Amino acid sequence: MSGNTFVAIAADGRLFGLDPQLLFDAAVTAVNVFVLFLLLTFILFNPVRNMLKKRQDKITSDRENAENDKKEAGALKAEYEAKLKDAHKEAEQILSDARKTAMHNETKIIDEAKAEAARIIERANVEAELEKQKVADEVKQQIVTVAAVMASKLVARSIDEKDSNALIEETLNEMGEKTWLS
After folding, report:
1. Rounded to whole angstroms, how far apart are CA atoms 6 and 29?
2. Whole-structure pTM value
3. Coiled-coil regions in this chain (predicted)?
4. Euclidean distance between CA atoms 110 and 102, whole angstroms
5. 10-residue stretch averages of pLDDT, the chain, 182 residues long
């Protein structure tokens, strides 16, 4: 057998020969694996760990921000609902005030209309009274005119009492009965 260290069965009957070269090769391989582990740790594992740590921190930060945003949204919603209720109350108050103002204006307009109607009726009554007075004056004028005509006729005709009564009766019939009643 040659100097091959990897022999299936060693010359002395062992499965593999544990010689110094094998131990040296094993030690060098172990050191290489350790150095490779350290090198990979600095080149790959630490950056990956840092990236994972940053990602975990970002996720935690995003989660906290989401919780804060959710709390703020809840607070804003409560504030909005309160403002909405206040707006509804204010709208109701404005409508109530508008109704009261409308009722007041309606009452005022009705009172003004009643007062105007009373003034119109009063003016009509005054005008009717003036017209009545005017008609009465005209009737008096006509009576005076009739009396003067009668007096001139009486003087022109010296008539007796019977003719005078007939003349008065005739004049009264011409003027009508309604003239004396008003």
Report:
1. 16
2. 0.37
3. 49-101
4. 12
5. 50 66 91 92 84 94 94 92 92 93 94 94 93 88 80 68 76 66 54
